[in-house]
Amino acid sequence: MDFHFSSREEAFRQEVDDFIKRELPSNWVEESHFWPGGYGTIPDFEELGSAAELFRHRLAEKGWLTFSWPKEYGGSGRSNMEQAILNECLSYHRAPGPGVATLISGPTILLFGSDEAKRDWLPRIARGDIRFWLAYSEPNAGSDLASIKASAVEDGDDLVINGQKTWSSGAHVSDYAWMIVRTDPDAPAHKGISLVIVDNNSEGITIQPLINICGFHSFNEVFFDNVRVPKRNIIGERNRGWYYVMAALDFERLVVPVGGFKRTFEELVQWAKETKRGGQALTDEPLIRDKLADLAVDIDVAYMFFWQTAWMLDKGLVPNIEASVLKLVATQLSRKLANTAVDVMGPYGELERGVKWAPLKGRICTGYLDCISGLVGAGTSEIQRSIIAIRGLGLPWGGS
Amino acid sequence: MDFGLSEEQEMLRKSARDFLQKECPKQLVRQLDESDEGYSSELWRKMSELGWLGLPFPEKYGGGGGSFLDLVVLLEAMGYNVVPGPFFSTVVLGGMTILAAGNEGQKKGLLSEVANGKLILSLALTEPSVKYDDAASVKTTATARNGKYIINGTKLFVNDAHIADYLLCVARTKATGKPENGVTIFLLDSKAPGIKCTLLKTLARDKQCEIVFDNVAVPKENMVGGLNRGWQIIRDVLQKAIVAKCAEMVGGAQAALDMAVAYAKERVQFNRPIGSFQAIQHYCANMVSDVDGSRFVTYKAAWKVSEGLPATMDVAVAKAWTGAAYSRVTLLAHQIFGAVGFTMDHDLHLYYRRAKAGEIIFGDGAFQRAIVARELGL
């Protein structure tokens, strides 16, 4: 057993740190609304969008968006631990990281796509030239994702798609939908779903904004009305889409913003040190010390889950329930960090950005709203617990 | 022992719920939340016509002669409907202060105007140190000069000051001796020269303000409750305000519970209503415990205050439990609603925001538990 980073890993961390400080605008960490573990405050949806795009291209040039891919497709042959270090550093600086295209679509195409699909998509994804949005959820298919209704019917060389997707994060700032559609209405739910790439500019697509409770336009409702897509855009085998989507969950495992928790926590501690109440620093008050220490413990535990997952992947072990545990731990921490921060700051924590008295640029107030999203997005906490119980612990499934 | 409301209180509760459902739809709540003013003069007028704005004041001052408990019943209904506006500032914080400590002229002059919907009041108490239990935290000064007092200082997190006609400013009038024996309350025209009021944008969109007093002159007749006697008055008013805030929170928590249960019954996933899943059932059961617990401790404290019985412990218990419970309830409701609850168009965030603000104001759970501990003799 050894909890040190290797000298190669330490050197890589330094390289990443230098890179981020060089390439990210100097006011970024201050200006970003980013709340770790939330889905409602992503720079792409904020006023920082164009700078985020530029930074992501720099990451692509380094090959850091396609870490684990084969070299011929732009991969860099580095370890999962190094991937984890990169992700940690990025979130520590609230920097934009990998998106749907590099994180989910690329690896899925690598594993299941035809040679044609690899040629069609991988180079552009690796260069950071195209962006995808996840067209999964529908109004009546959330936790029960396999019950999707959006349909695709063959017509000559095309598929014709009809239906509605919702909670479509970033659909309005992306180029392609990474979409699941029902291609066999007669098959059992999980066995009639296909994965297909749909150009956002196709005729018949209507994207309508949904404003989240932080006040950002992060997600959308998207309507598909007789949208024609070439059949070659189907990824992998027809009607196997569900299994590809499930497999792709593995790729998201290391995208947990542990560094973001640490950063915001450090800023909270700093604020408490500098804030005096009745001549005494807040950090001298036992109750405040307890709340802050409690957070530090939670962050340390989250870090352990995070590094352990990277370690497993490098050992060639397949993390099973770890993805769900990590997601659960991280999003609960997201909520707790926001809640504790408001408790520590009192009414100051309720102040929005722009108010001169608002600490940390009002990030805590926004975070208190955004922390809800982590607990319900990308599989609610309840779904994660069911996965841990059923898939991980072998408990029986009580549903129908 | 009797846990029930009187017939009149039941009627008030029901008519308030019906009225607000009709006259204060969520669309209006949303619109007022997002506006700078934060209140509707039309709704304010209708509330006045119903006698709500004068409910707890004696009839001789133009009020309805209701008890504090009656007011609590009304506030629960208002919390259920998340009614925006300066009711709390005007009737609870302002009105109760004047009722408790004002002279006959002030009571006659001001309370009837409040009841008529002609006056909005705001209590300028907290300062950047935000201490509710420490008289020494009142740093804003009022200095006697030529028969007047000159006020200087900064008040922060003052609700509804931006629309108030009068401010009740809590100021230090004696620098030496015990801090609690050197605080005085002054009634100020909010438009007086030297007052600068800035609206702060907040989580609950509850129209808190910063007020800077720069050499603001106030006649000494505008003192409320006598020279250097302000702190005890504030303590008594805060006790009522805490219970009143709890009543609002009970109503809000009940509404969040009702919404979540209705949705759990109708939302189908995996071919069954999500309310048939044990995880969701347990959430709902936990919410019921929180809401009912909140109501019991709040009404017990309200009853004691209303009867004039010692209530320090009960008020602290009510706030410690209810504040945390409201936040817990709205959080569980968010789990039940999932993504749709994360949209601005959904009603739930109106409650989630207010829950946290309610938890924090007048001292959070840790603050209240410290009082409980003290009352236990620890």
Which properties best describe this structure?
heterodimer, A: alpha+beta, four-stranded mixed sheet, globular, B: alpha+beta, four-stranded antiparallel sheet, 10 strands
Write a structural description:
- The complex is a heterodimer of chains A (400) and B (378).
- By secondary structure, chain A is α+β, with helices and mostly antiparallel strands.
- Helix content of chain A is 44%, strand content 14%.
- Chain A has helices at 7-23, 28-31, 49-62, 80-92, 100-112, 115-126, 241-248, 258-274, 286-314, 322-345, 363-376, 381-392; strands spanning 132-135, 151-155, 158-165, 176-182, 193-199, 205-211, 217-230, 234-235, 276-277, 280-281.
- In chain A, strand 2 and strand 3 form a beta hairpin.
- The longest helix of chain A is centred in the last third of the chain and has 29 residues, at 286-314.
- Chain B is of the alpha+beta class and 378 residues long.
- In chain B, the strands form three sheets. Chain B has a four-stranded mixed β-sheet, with helices on one face.
- The radius of gyration of chain B is 21 Å and the shape is globular.
- At the A-B interface, helix 10, helix 11 and helix 12 of A face strand 9, helix 8, helix 9 and helix 10 of B.
What is the compact description of this entry?
The complex is a heterodimer of chains A (400) and B (378). Chain A is an alpha+beta fold and 400 residues long.
How would the blueprint of this fold be written?
The complex is a heterodimer of chains A (400) and B (378).
Chain A (H helix, E strand, L loop, with lengths): L6 H17 L4 H4 L17 H14 L17 H13 L7 H13 L2 H12 L5 E4 L15 E5 L2 E8 L10 E7 L10 E7 L5 E7 L5 E14 L3 E2 L5 H8 L9 H17 L1 E2 L2 E2 L4 H29 L7 H24 L17 H14 L4 H12 L8
Parallel strand pairs in A: 1-4
Antiparallel strand pairs in A: 2-3, 3-7, 4-5, 5-8, 6-7, 9-10
Helix pairs in contact in A: 1-4, 4-8, 4-9, 5-6, 5-7, 8-9, 8-10, 9-10, 10-11, 10-12
Chain B lengths: L6 H17 L2 H9 L6 H9 L18 H13 L6 H15 L2 H12 L5 E4 L16 E5 L2 E12 L6 E7 L10 E7 L5 E6 L7 E12 L3 E2 L5 H37 L1 E2 L2 E2 L4 H30 L4 H26 L10 H13 L4 H11 L3
Parallel strand pairs in B: 1-4
Antiparallel strand pairs in B: 2-3, 3-7, 4-5, 5-8, 6-7, 9-10
Helix pairs in contact in B: 1-4, 4-7, 5-6, 5-7, 7-8, 7-9, 7-10, 8-9, 9-10, 9-11
